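User: Show me sequence and structure for the first protein, then do the same for the second.

Assistant: Starting with the first protein.
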Amino acid sequence: TLNNSGLFQFVAGNSDLVNNNAGIGTFNNTGTIQSLAANARFISTNLALNNTGGTLSATGNANLSINASGANSGTTTLSGTNVFFSGGTRTVDGSIAATAGSIFNASGATFNLGDGSSFNLADNLNFSGGAINLTGTTTGTTLAPGSTLSLAGQAFGGSGNLTNLGSFNFNTSTIAGTLTNQGTLNVNSGISAINGATFDLTGGSVNLAAGATLNKNSGALNWSGGALNGLGNLSTSGGATLGFTGSGARVLTGRR
């Protein structure tokens, strides 16, 4: 077991790596892992990389590829554009944060987002491979206020909950779980579907651009507050029901 609470740095070379060839090894990071190398890697099916409030950094021509399973708790901060989660399975019950100028590269790993997990992003998710699954069924996963998340031709798996408190651009994509909207949900193109138990519109706004469709497939669409805007289409399929609950204000503009 290696515990890092300071700075662990890949300094030089094109193929620097942390590996574990025998038995089970654990790398616990509460500090900073920084790559200054062209091809720094954590790679081993026998190595667990756990981040608890740590920072992962790779900028410029440097790369940091993580192909190890493990857990993310607290706030995992991504710094730079070249940190790649390329393999393994990561269990998340904390926050994944990437400010403007950095990128969250989900390029092959499986992320299981449990209760208490959250995104603090600046429209900088690069979801090119692997899987992102919603597994938390109580508090679930939250898109934090002030954050922006975009999906385009992609899918969130799992039967858990996602609560949008920020700005969510949802285009030609699917969510297998439940979505609660209290922020801004934009469907600008294509057909996007919510396939889980419920779509709860409790506040904020859903903006449907002309030619775009938001489909609730099976389960229920519960509207207790907030606005439905735009000239796009809201549709149901698979026996989905539309329910009006609570006493909150509801605003409908455009056409459905």
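Switching to the second protein now.
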Amino acid sequence: MARGRTPLRRDARGRAAVSGDAARAPIPKSRDLIDQTQCETRMRDGMMAMFRGRAPGAAGSERRGAAARGAAALALGLLIGLGGCSYLGLGDETATPIAEERPVEELFGIAQNSLREGRYQTAILQFEEVERLYPISSYAKRSILGASVAAYRAGEYDKSALSAGRYLEFYPSDEQAPYAQYLIAMSSYDQITDVGRDQARTKAALQALRELINRYPNSEYTREAQLKLDLTLDHLAGKEMSIGRFYLKRGKYIGAINRFRTVVERYQTTTHVPEALHRLVEAYLALGVESEAQTAAAVLGHNFPGSDWYQDSYALLTGRDLRPEVDRGSWMNRAWSQLVEGEWL
């Protein structure tokens, strides 16, 4: 007997390119896997169950009880009629269920066809069915990755990352392992929110991107991963800057300094460093710590001499008869020296 699952409607969203084995198998012609006559027969059987549940001639409470039993029988009859049909894509003639009797190559091709036609929810179920029916075949491995791709395209990022993670657990050295790690990273990267919200997804993306770069430095996805890593770091730095400005405007100078210091120490390659150094000048001057303010301005002028932030910092210092000057014992001098000498991680 053919067995199928209920597919959802077509979802046009998709942002990951299909790669490797998940894009190469031949695609058979689409066709129904269920005899419609058999389906109609089961529908009639379900309707008969409805009529058997009625109790004509009953009166009073017996009639109400009979009506209740009739309603229950109606629901049961419909379930029997519909549930007996393997073709459950009601209203969706493009749905293609999976059947145990078909060879694994054909089942995998049907799942791929669903993926390429944008029926991602159907594809997920079909890839999972291939793995369930043929767990020790080579198609099981390919189906794990195919389900991850389909879930990613459907916007089910957590499910995509879970499938890709399973793939890496089973096949860490496989040629498609870099792509699986890429899907994990992108599943978090595509959920990054603005700097005003929690950045847990940003940190998860950062970790996954670093894992991809470190484990598979020569893969075709490494270059893109590096670009996205830089954007992720810039985003995290922007979060620290947002909080630091908030504290600075409210006179919470110690809290502000801690946030700007984080940017200077941890995110030195981002675009936020010049402003962070200038804000440190402002905060340290407000606290009366002139040596640190002078050091921040000196580091800013040495590394970003043409920036507007340095011009503003220079004006603040000269307005107090001070000049940019490095304090060799300052944390800023130590941190920047580590970066210049290649010791900074």
